[in-house]
Design brief:
By secondary structure, this protein is of the alpha/beta class. The chain is built from 18 helices and 13 strands. Helix 5 (about 95-105) crosses helix 6 and helix 10 packs parallel to helix 11 (about 235-240).
């Protein structure tokens, strides 16, 4: 069968590439055409447009590149119609993908499936109307989404979480060896605090200086910063200054594997940190903190920002967000987590285990692929 996939950013490229490999296991004759990235290209098929030409974040960048964005949308719509795939599979990236879904639903009979559903439970809940109208099948990687979509009379499929797959695979293939890790990166025997300060420059600019200020109070630990892909070392250097911080690129999982605790910005990194059983404090500063705090109370539909707390449906990890993220607050929350026998640390680790049971076992890509292929092969009923 012919599969047309659309991923608009690096994380989507990763998840789509894993899905494509799983689809090949279910359908060895699978033919892929896609908007995506290098990881998808490595699996095979035809790359129509790289996500680097799609990914614009924020109001001003989107406005400045609007002609390019609209041109890419037109190209995508025309290319899908000309190629006439058996299915269009959308991966996250809702601003672009929901517009594509609307067009394909209105102009063709090609089924549209969504893998990694739009996070409309956090905001823009009105988009449920578009999803019910334009999306034939929706595959979720977050278990709490089931109740949300079911409350809107829209059935979805929970297939597990890809982060469970990634971390499980890493741990199985990379046994922990602190001595080797120390030798490779010229570290000493002190316990490690991992620093995951975001994947975008603005996040790093806002969060890293406060994190480093707080960590200056823990000289008995080594601070290791996980460098984000695409961020040059010199960008970090302007914020690190004289702080005793080791920065490692492409080693996030190994850093977490050996960390005693971590400071993490919101996002998938909070979930990955929990899967490595590393106690953490979630830190997300913004210069307009009080405004963001107001929006959280009155506009956002969720109680938490970290995936760990959202999945557990309770506060497992402390979230220092907006104006509550200060160096003093970080120190206060981090200190008990560095005591291996503290009640706070033990409670967090126990809650991690409960959350991991909620997520379920590894195999999200394989389960999604199997359900997609079975759905496409199922006879159409009137």
């Amino acid at each position: 069968m012919k599969y047309y996939l659309i991923a608009g950013e690096a994380s989507g490229d990763l998840h789509a590439s894993n899905l494509m490999r799983a689809l090949l296991q279910q359908d060895p004759q699978a033919d892929f055409r896609f908007f995506g990235g290098d990881l998808m290209k490595s699996v095979g098929g035809t790359l129509v447009k790289h996500y680097r030409e799609l990914a614009y974040m924020g109001f001003i960048p989107v406005l400045m590149h609007l002609p390019t964005i609209l041109s890419n949308m037109r190209l995508c719509k025309q290319d899908i119609c000309q190629w006439s795939p058996d299915v269009v599979i959308l991966i996250d990236y809702p601003g672009f993908n929901l517009d594509i879904a609307k067009y394909i639903h209105a102009k063709t009979s090609i089924p549209v499936y969504y893998y990694i559903s739009p996070k409309i439970w956090a905001w823009k809940e009105y988009r449920i109307k578009n999803i019910k109208r334009d999306i034939d099948q929706l595959y979720s990687i977050l278990p709490f989404e089931i109740d949300f979509f079911n409350s809107h009379d829209y059935p979805i499929h929970y297939v597990g979480n890809p982060s469970v797959d990634s971390v499980t695979h890493f741990i199985s293939n990379h046994p922990a060896n602190r001595e080797e890790f120390n030798r490779q990166h010229e570290l000493d025997e002190r316990p490690i605090i991992a620093l995951l300060a975001g994947s975008r420059k603005q996040e790093i600019k806002d969060n890293l200086p406060i994190m480093l200020e707080a960590l200056s109070n823990f000289p008995q630990h080594q601070i290791i910063l996980a460098g984000a892909p695409g961020i040059p070392p010199e960008y970090y250097a302007q914020y690190i200054g004289e702080h005793p911080v080791k920065i490692l690129f492409g080693e996030t999982y190994r850093i977490l594997q050996h960390a005693q605790a971590a400071l993490v910005t919101s996002g998938t990194a909070t979930l990955e940190t929990a899967l490595f059983r590393v106690p953490q404090v979630v830190c997300y500063y913004t210069p307009i903190g009080k405004v963001i705090s107001f929006l959280r109370r009155h506009i956002l539909k969720v109680r938490f920002i970290s995936l760990v707390n959202l999945i557990a449906n309770r506060e497992v990890v402390r979230e220092l967000v907006a104006h509550t993220m200060t160096a003093d607050n970080i120190c206060h929350e981090l200190k008990p987590l560095l005591n291996n026998h503290s009640e706070e640390r033990q409670n967090m680790l126990e809650e991690y285990e409960r959350m991991i049971r909620i997520l379920g076992p590894a195999g999200a890509s394989e389960k999604a692929a199997k359900e997609i292929v079975n759905s496409l092969k199922a006879p159409v009923t009137a």
